[in-house]
């Protein structure tokens, strides 16, 4: 039992520490969002010249180019602002000849409806857009591999073969574009500046650890108490005198058969 509780406590402590690590990551993300909100929009080439990291996310960049309308991709099973749906990804060839993926926005999927097979066309000709810097999403390689123009995760490294041309690292989350695009596409904004439930989850795991430890102590104390009581009963039983033999009430022969004369 002790070994089990120790293993359980070790697991709970690690889960609590994991939640604290998630809290630190969320705080760093919030700090990035706040810092980048105060910064001016920067040219595309200033950021998309290297591998995009978490520290680069949610900067605003501006770029000009032409959408590759024949290479649209539907990112399925997305969530935004408490809703579920899909996002539309379209490559953009910049005026400098680079290709960057652009997440053109979110579309809510009504319950019970299948994903659409046709997508809103991008604005034709040269466009000017402003968007958020996004790093490549990570996960199962199968979720990054397009199937019938659909994908689960947006990763430029995994989608380069599908586009058929080299892609810059990361992608852009569209904020606004000129000329305007379809009104049904909703820009994906940064996550809310909150710390989420990570602190309370961490405290819960640590509380479970304390409960397991206290429970073990109670079990050990009860076990020792029961053993002590059993030993005391045994000692009292050994010290008690043997009981006197019970009197023999069997009738004598004479009483049974009466006196006998010669």
From TrEMBL:
Keywords: Cell membrane, Membrane, Transmembrane, Transmembrane helix. It is a multi-pass membrane protein. The keyword Membrane applies. Residues 228-262 are annotated as: Disordered. InterPro entries: Surf1/Shy1, Surf1/Surf4. The keyword Membrane applies. It is found in: Cell membrane; Membrane. It holds the Pfam family SURF1. PROSITE patterns: SURF1. CDD domains: SURF1. GO terms for cellular component: plasma membrane. The chain crosses the membrane at residues 199-220. Belongs to the SURF1 family. PANTHER family: SURFEIT LOCUS PROTEIN, SURFEIT LOCUS PROTEIN 1. This is SURF1-like protein. It comes from Propioniciclava sinopodophylli.
